[in-house]
Amino acid sequence: MTAERPQSIAIVGHFVRLEPLTRALLPELRDAIAHPLVFEGGFGGGPGGLRAGLGEFAGWADAYVQWAGLPYAVRLLGGAHDGDLVGMSTLGDLHLANESAHLGWTAYNPRVWGTAVNAETKLLLLGLAFDHGFGRVKIQADVMNVRSCAAVAGVGATYEGIVRRERRRADGSWRDTVVFSILDSEWPRVRAGLRARLDGYGAQPVEYRQRPFETSDAA
């Protein structure tokens, strides 16, 4: 069986709504993730990749986002922050013949770190991949992004190893990349774990955590 490319349409969960990311949404995305806390762990090329001004951020996003894949904006559902764009994630590197994909290019506003947002986004995008015949989904992170590596392991993905000197960071240093994966045979276990985690958050909409940064006013 060969995998099929999913349609680029909105996906609705309980806590979040995934909306196909377009360039028109970049101002909202910039407000959500253009902060040092997001980039310091290695996202987007690391701290040197941060572009806070809207024009610079749009230029960065044009090169960084895998537009040929299925990039999604993540919006909150319900509550005081209903509709707020709080991050992005992508199902990319779609290789239909090999039935493989890469779930990555993921970042969230720090105000939703530790909430149900990441778990449900992963549940929805992994479900999208496996429901369309993919047999392996890779998830990876910069070795210095301890937070992301722990989150990926917590999802139930299998650690595969470290690809050394895999790419340059924005500051010119070389990145080692930690690689995890989930196979279709493992998906029922991973899905059950994600659903159990989401059950632990209860039914209330996501509320922002204490704000650990100041919003940039750069334009």
UniProtKB/TrEMBL annotation:
N-acetyltransferase domain residues: 18-157
Origin: domain of life: Bacteria
GO molecular function, one term: acyltransferase activity, transferring groups other than amino-acyl groups
Organism expressing this protein natively: Cryobacterium shii
Classification via Pfam families: Acetyltransf_3 (PF13302)
Sequence intervals crossing the membrane: none
Protein name (database record): N-acetyltransferase
